[in-house]
Amino acid sequence: MKIGLIGTGSMGSLLLDAFIYFGAIQPQQLYISNRSKEKLLLLSERHEGLNISQNNIETVTHCDILFVCVKPLQFTTIIEEIKDHVRSDQLLVSITSPVQLHHLENNLSCKIAKIIPSVTHKVGSGASLVMYGSRIQEKEKQLLHDLLSFISKPIEIKETQARINSDFTSCGPAFMSFFLIKWIEAAVEMTGISREEITCLASEMMLGTGTLLTQGGLTPLQLQELVAVPGGITAQALSQLNQSLDGVFHNLITTTHNKYVEDVEKLNELLGDIN
Ligand SMILES: NC(=O)c1ccc[n+]([C@@H]2O[C@H](COP(=O)([O-])OP(=O)(O)OC[C@H]3O[C@@H](n4cnc5c(N)ncnc54)[C@H](OP(=O)(O)O)[C@@H]3O)[C@@H](O)[C@H]2O)c1
Q1: Annotated binding site for NADPH
Q2: Where are the alpha helices (DSSP H) in 150-232?
Q3: In whole angstroms, what is the distance from residue 254 CA to residue 26 CA?
Q4: DSSP 3-state of 93
Q5: pLDDT digits over 207-227, tens only?
Q6: CA of 77 to the centre of ligand 1 (A)
Q7: Which domains does the chain have, with CATH numbers?
Q8: If you placed Cys at 18, which of 8, 69, 151, 261 could pair as Cys (CB 3.0 to 4.6 Å)?
Q9: Which atom of ligand 1 is nearest to the CA of 99?
């Protein structure tokens, strides 16, 4: 099986590194292209045997599965470039949430799927969200699922819920890090503890918390109740946190969804609406 990858920016190169590192594919199976050439050279230095294409059409021509890892509005250029070169037996996988399956099916004759990966796949962890277009058969579902299983836990979702799901899986690591940065900042400022020391402890705590939630059989509420005994310090701090964070997550979800709708509307104009 040959795999193509268009766009070797942050997420494209992370997926490529992870697929190779976790043994999903060999560099020789990969054909990659990117608008600027420097990123391709860096990747070919990292992975001997990687095939660097001269352009996106060459990538498309060689592959069975094509991952397109560019930003939403960059899709229009790529679709224009590759539309006469894709084959009906090929599977194109977009990693961009606002680009809808119907945008791609409207404009390309191949099979279409969409995934929302996460930075956590760098360490073979986290959920990857998967959505399938109307032309996909069981065979391609299995293929994509098997490939993603090397680096993540693939979960099929409805496209209508892509935004809220990716708020957690894809944006989540940034939101959780933001929370930690603020907390660490306050700890350093108020107690003089060393940033390195407290960052190390905070990171271990995040890992342990994640493991308790994924493998320890606890829900977030059960975990919270286990630590915050009534009348204790944690319970008092949680009561304060509860007041401070009132409305924060509703605002967060409103923000991500408004930006998403804005992007989808722009793409509807460029790539055609559902009808
Ligand atoms: N970062 C995340 O955690 C994450 C998670 C899930 C999904 N995503 C999605 O992944 C997509 C890409 O994000 P990113 O962070 O990887 O962006 P990025 O770092 O800007 O990467 C985009 C890459 O696409 C290349 N490109 C642009 N137009 C091209 C064209 N016509 N032909 C070939 N290559 C082209 C760019 O090349 P240049 O070198 O010339 O700029 C760049 O390397 C976004 O839609 C994002 O929402 C990201």
Answers
A1: 56
A2: 162-169, 172-191, 195-214, 220-227
A3: 41
A4: strand
A5: 999 999 999 999 999 999 999
A6: 13
A7: 3-159 (3.40.50.720), 172-244 (no CATH)
A8: 151
A9: 45
